[in-house]
Amino acid sequence: MYQTLTFLHSLTRWLVLISLIYAIYRSFKGYSSNRKFTGADNKVRHWTATIAHIQLAIGMIFYFKSPVIQYFWKNFNEAKDSLEHVFFGLIHISLMITAIIIITIGSALAKRQPSDKEQFKTMGLWFSIALIIIFIAIPWPFSPFANRPYFR
């Protein structure tokens, strides 16, 4: 089960990133060209948030099944000295939950804006903030905190 979760969490990461980047692109393009917020834009907003929530669910299951996390909490006094353990035990999960909350709020606010321009602006702003947080929290191969391969 752990290997399956590892694979799914890694794969879904790319879906989250692609959907966020696409949603941000559509929002800034729509905002700058004064386009109408269409049903397609609304679907992109909705599916971006949905994919992020699926990733969160996989991530939460992965978190509680992970031997790294189990070691971190059982041996906190010695594990807290390891940047990699602290990253996965506290930083990664905290930043990712924050990012998903921001995506959720941004999606809900964008849906309720009175004008098309405001819908695009709201979606672009909130999703961009979440994307920055996600980029920081992903254990990229070049990350100074903890690194993992691009695909697992």
Description:
The protein has 152 residues and is mainly alpha-helical. 80% of the residues lie in helices and 0% in strands. The protein contains six helices and no strands. Helix 1 runs antiparallel to helix 6 (116-137). It is elongated, with a radius of gyration of 17 Å. The mean pLDDT is 93.
Explain briefly what this protein structure is:
By secondary structure, the chain is mostly helical. It has helices spanning 2-32, 39-65, 67-74, 76-79, 83-112, 116-137.
What are the key terms here?
single chain; 152 residues; mainly alpha; 6 helices; 80% helix; 0% strand
What overall geometry do the principal axes of the alpha carbons give?
A: elongated
Average of the residue pLDDT scores:
93
Task: Kindly estimate the percentage of residues that lie in beta strands according to DSSP.
Answer: under 5%
Helix fraction bin: over 70%
The biggest sheet amounts to: none
Number of helices: 6
Element-by-element helix/strand order: HHHHHH
* Quaternary organisation of the protein chains: single chain
First CA to last CA: what distance?
Answer: 14 Å
User: Structural class, please?
Assistant: mainly alpha
Low-pLDDT runs: none
Q: How many extended strands? A: 0
Nearest-angstrom radius of gyration? Answer: 17 Å
Chain-wise SSE layout:
Layout: H1 2-32, H2 39-65, H3 67-74, H4 76-79, H5 83-112, H6 116-137
